[in-house]
Design a protein that fits this description.
Strand order of the largest sheet: 3-4-5-6-7-8-9
CATH topology of the largest domain: Fructose-1,6-Bisphosphatase, Chain A, domain 1
Number of domains: 2
Low-confidence stretches: none
Radius of gyration: 18 Å
Structural class: alpha+beta
Largest sheet: 7 strands, mixed
Shape: globular
Number of helices: 8
Number of strands: 14
Distance between the termini: 46 Å
Length: 269
């Protein structure tokens, strides 16, 4: 079996697992008053649903690909023996999830030789299934995705995220510059979904001073496969400690990247 076939088989399985995991999460979502919620830090809640859904995803992936590695938000990493590593966020948008609001998704990405080669973002509330494979485009419910054709920050909606790991002033500076340029900013609590929305052309771009790998690498691959641009990043650093994210349609990427370069210039706390 060649590498292309190996990736295709993994993506097909990841799509199936993401749908099943999302159905499991949806059961918890419909009975949120029974959730057991903890806090991992400022604005960083976690529930028993996050942990149980991640365990389900891990079990399903490792049963099919016994030598693959896994990096997940809620459980310890598994070292890869095959060269493939799965990166999982069981419920991206937990803050929304635990209060019964939409804007959350199951996220699964696959990394091989330092490159994201496949990704899935499944939103069961909206019944939207985003997927992508390196060199094969990106799709929403099996229809091709294409980024927006905007050429100005005032021509569309831009999403902006914030991380408690960086000074608030960094994000405020970026927001100020964006609004002074005529931009409208948006935030829904799920970085993965906002990146998927850029790939779908719903948003013209997305930026955040720091994201963890499980939140962003699937969406960033979708954006590049849909014709967009992302800020270059070191793959190993992203997997180990996360990174700044800047992604947009080509027409506004240079302006957004310049704003972020001026704004996100402080070290992580």
């Amino acid at each position: 079996m060649n590498e292309s076939e190996e990736i295709s088989i993994r993506l097909d399985h990841a799509r199936k697992v993401a749908r099943e995991a999302a159905a499991l999460a949806l059961n918890y979502f419909r009975d949120i008053h029974e959730l057991k919620i903890e806090s991992k830090g400022t604005q960083d809640p976690v529930s028993n649903a996050d942990r149980e859904v991640e365990l389900f995803v891990r079990q399903q992936l490792l049963a099919a690909f016994t030598e693959d590695g896994i990096i997940g938000e809620e459980h310890a990493p598994v070292t890869s023996k095959s060269g493939y590593t799965w990166v999982i966020d069981p419920i991206d948008g937990t803050a929304n999830f635990i209060v019964g609001s939409p804007g959350w998704a199951v996220v699964i990405a696959c990394v091989q030789a330092g490159h994201t080669v496949a990704g899935v973002i499944h939103d069961p509330v909206a019944d939207e299934h985003f997927c992508t494979r390196l060199g094969h485009g990106a799709q929403l419910n099996d229809k091709p995705l294409r980024v927006a054709d905007s050429t100005s920050l005032s021509d569309g909606i831009l999403a902006v995220g914030h991380s408690s790991r960086v000074p608030v002033s960094n994000t405020i500076r970026a927001l100020t510059e964006i609004m002074n340029a005529g931009g409208i900013f948006y935030r829904n609590g799920s970085g993965a979904l906002m990146l998927a929305y850029v790939a779908a052309g719903r948003l013209i771009g997305y930026c955040e001073p720091h994201m963890n790998c499980w939140d962003c690498i699937a969406g960033m691959l979708m954006i590049t496969e849909a014709g967009g641009r992302i800020d270059p990043y070191d793959s190993e650093a992203m997997l180990q400690q996360g990174h700044e994210v800047v992604a947009a349609c080509p027409g506004i990427y240079p302006e957004l990247q310049a704003i972020c370069a001026r704004s996100f210039n402080n070290e992580l706390d």
